[in-house]
Amino acid sequence: VLLSWVFLGMEKMVVCLYKRPDALCRLICFPWAGGGTSQLAQWGKLFSRSIEVFSVRFPGRESRLMEPFAKDMTTLVNEITSVLLKHLEEKPFAFFGHSFGSYISFAVALDLKEKYGLEPVHLFVSGAHAPHSEAFLPIKSIPIRDADDEDILAYIETLGGTPFALMQNEDIKKHLILTLREDLRVLQTFSFEKPEKNIPFSCDITCFDGSEDKPHDLEAWHELTSGDISLYKLPGGHFYLLEPSNEIFLTKHITRCIENAGL
């Protein structure tokens, strides 16, 4: 029964459009707030046969539309860890997260390390502050409960990246606002204090950012691993990664990092 539950959990939570059973490594992708799996799942076709791409689907969207949103970070992380665990134990894996997805990927990586001694071969974070940074604190004080739809919409628009056509459809707009509100609520339940002595990770971390985006505290990621840190700014705003030329840079760079990890 447990195996069938894990399989069903896998089917609803993870999208893998380009299955590569013989891949050396899996890249697990975590989308941004309000986001679904489609863009990052498509990355599968840009990678060589040595990398299989999984895109994680959070509750409350796409085929999980009828499920309640996650109520807090711990619940979401526990669900993701329990579904992915078997797959992460069987071969090396790397994480990529953008914005909200970066924080989720970090929290999942932390959970895997603390409970199972598992660690990604590389952590790729994009458009996100280091979670223990002072710069992360304003996110925790966005007044989501009191914010009306127009405020949330204005916030979405400052991020850019949401196609204008989607915003013309009332139902889609309503659901996007609801999803963003719930994702931000989850993010506000996340708190991470860097341990004084114990550095959480030993893997390399690469941080990407859009050159026109509000700057993120990338330097502080240095304090979270004993591995190497690389920082890259790519042309564009918060959703720079949707530009085809940036997508090509990202997928080539990620491939090189994974192949150099000596798997």
Automatic annotation (TrEMBL):
Catalyzed reaction equations: (9Z)-octadecenoyl-[ACP] + H2O = (9Z)-octadecenoate + holo-[ACP] + H(+)
**Which EC number applies?**
3.1.2.14
From the UniProt record, which GO molecular function terms apply?
Answer: fatty acyl-[ACP] hydrolase activity
Name its GO BP terms in alphabetical order: medium-chain fatty acid biosynthetic process
Superkingdom of this protein's organism? Eukaryota
Q: Does the keyword Lipid metabolism apply?
A: yes
Q: Which UniProt keywords apply?
A: Fatty acid biosynthesis, Fatty acid metabolism, Hydrolase, Lipid biosynthesis, Lipid metabolism
UniProt keyword Hydrolase present: yes
Instruction: Please name one Pfam family that this protein belongs to.
Output: Thioesterase
Annotated Thioesterase domain residues: 26-246
Which family does the record assign? Belongs to the thioesterase family.
> Per its record, how is this protein called by name?
S-acyl fatty acid synthase thioesterase, medium chain
Task: Name the species this protein comes from.
Answer: Crotophaga sulcirostris
